Amino acid sequence: MLKTLSAQIKEFKRDSFLTPVFMILEVIMETVIPLLMASIIDDGVETGNIRHIYAVGACMAVVATFSLFAGIMGGKYGARASAGFAKNLRKAMFENIQTFSFSNIDKFSTAGLVTRMTTDVTNIQNAYQMILRMCTRAPFSLICAMAMAFWISPRLASIYLIAVILLGAVLAIIVSRAMKYFGQVFPKYDDLNASVQENVSAIRVVKAYVREDHEIGKFKKASENIYRMFLKAENVVALNAPVMQITVYSCILSISWLGAKMIVGSSLKTGQLMSLLTYCMNILMSLMMLSMIFVMVTMSIASAKRISEVLNEKSDLTNPQDPVFTVENGEIVFDHVSFSYKKDSSSRVLSDINLTIRSGETIGVLGGTGSSKSSLVNLISRLYDVTEGSVSVGGRDVRTYDMEALRNQVAVVLQNNVLFSGTILDNLRWGNKEASEEECIRACKLACADEFIQTFPDKYNTHIEQGGTNVSGGQKQRLCIARALLKKPKVLILDDSTSAVDTATDARIRHAFATEIPDTTKLIIAQRISSIQNADKIIVLEDGKVHGFGTHEELLANNDIYRDVYESQTSGGGDFDEKGGA
């Protein structure tokens, strides 16, 4: 874990080195000041030597200036190092997430990843700054103050030593008890963020069903869970302050009483007693800082583990040593393919799939909910790897291709269409960042999107809100289809991506595909028979197996499921899941 995190310090190593150097310099200056003060009192004030007071006072001002400068520089470099460390952590996590396969992403919730990149990284940032500054300053200050106290009076300094040992033991108990609570509290943030994210993204549904009170209750429960865990932890940590105060005041009283007796007995000077009291505060404040460090580090350990999980997660999908960068054509072959989302699982999502699709064919895919239609097409662009068998595109196993090259030639319009904030042109150019405006317009005409874009005042420069909330479901689907077409793919997969489009527009889109991109292999997942009945062939899936594969006429004659779906839809007697999915 430490190795994983420390690798992200990178260009901020110099700042991380200079911070403790300046902290040590500050401590040295602060250690000298009480000695100078003692000299002013004992050799200046008590003897009436005004020149000595001025001389030592000037030295004290210089030392204090150096201490101030060191403190400022330590704060500056510490802030830069910790902020840079946090920046690198977020960048490394985000870059690693981009390499994840779908199966890797399935291990982490979206809210969990957000928490790791925000709350957890902030905890690490604060802890790192405290380690660089306080974790250097506190122990060094304690050692220097203790050494000077023993140099002045070993007898009185032994009081410090006893206090340090007792206080250290108590603080260790407090920190160990608080640690278990802090280890449990940060995963609770995932639930809180999940509640917020789900509510905001589905706010229209919440309001449509008047479920605001229910959502408020969910958020309140998640928030109270965090509150209770933090309360338990803080109740333990709160013991730190009274224990520290009792120790400080006990030391001051003991040193004042014994010191006064020693002054009367002429074995100690007044200035030396003042220095000892100053060193007493330095020692005990150093212990207080150490206890704060332990608490902060305890809090950050849980965050560090969660961040390391993301950084150390390796994608299940990797490029071969000598990848192929060219996809020759859109031919697709499933050869005894079986697939499960968990590799050690005995249950199969897809079982023994054997299919051959020629380049340029239009293939319909039909099946009930849970029949693994999306799982089937996800294997083509290698969003997942097969568990058994092989999937080939263009005559080669998809595992031999460079994944970026493969996915650039296998365009997928997913079931859940996503648009990003920006103009329509910005969104279209996700398909091809170099596409001209004319190419974007042509793709939109093929997808029947140009007709509604022209009604917008800003046309192709119309701003799309985050998630595409200012366009309808059908408009969003057509923009996503146009975006995929700009890739000029060898294979185009439409995963139920015309479900929000009326049948007339659906037919026009299919006609445009047939006439404008005849060499592109097209796989269309649909629930409407009308969307796929003119396809070259249709795949009927049931329970992860191919139940039928043929033309519309062949399946009507030979496949019960397909015939039931067709009859139910043409007669208006129900939907697929009621009739054909059983």
A few lines on this structure:
This protein has 582 residues and is an alpha/beta fold. The chain contains 21 helices and 12 strands.
Major beta-sheet overview: 6 strands, mixed
DSSP, total strands: 12
Net shape = elongated
**Rg, alpha carbons:** 35 Å
Describe this structure in words.
With 582 residues, the protein is of the alpha/beta class. The protein is 64% helix and 10% strand. It contains 21 helices and twelve strands. The strands form three sheets. It has a six-stranded mixed sheet with strand order 6-9-10-3-11-12. Strands 2-1-4-5 form a four-stranded antiparallel sheet, with no helix packed on it. Strand 4 and strand 5 form a beta hairpin. The longest helix has 50 residues, at 50-99. The radius of gyration is 35 Å and the shape is elongated. Mean pLDDT is 81; it is low at 573-582.
Secondary structure layout:
Blueprint: H1 2-6, H2 13-45, H3 50-99, H4 102-107, H5 110-152, H6 154-201, H7 203-208, H8 212-237, H9 240-264, H10 270-312, E1 332-339, E2 350-357, E3 362-367, H11 373-378, E4 388-393, E5 396-397, H12 403-409, E6 410-413, E7 422-423, H13 424-428, H14 437-446, H15 450-453, E8 463-464, H16 473-485, E9 491-495, H17 503-516, E10 521-525, H18 529-532, E11 537-542, E12 545-550, H19 552-558, H20 560-570, H21 576-579
Parallel strand pairs: 3-10, 3-11, 6-9, 9-10
Antiparallel strand pairs: 1-2, 1-4, 4-5, 7-8, 11-12
Helix pairs in contact: 2-3, 2-5, 2-10, 3-5, 5-6, 5-10, 6-8, 6-9, 6-10, 9-10, 14-16, 19-20
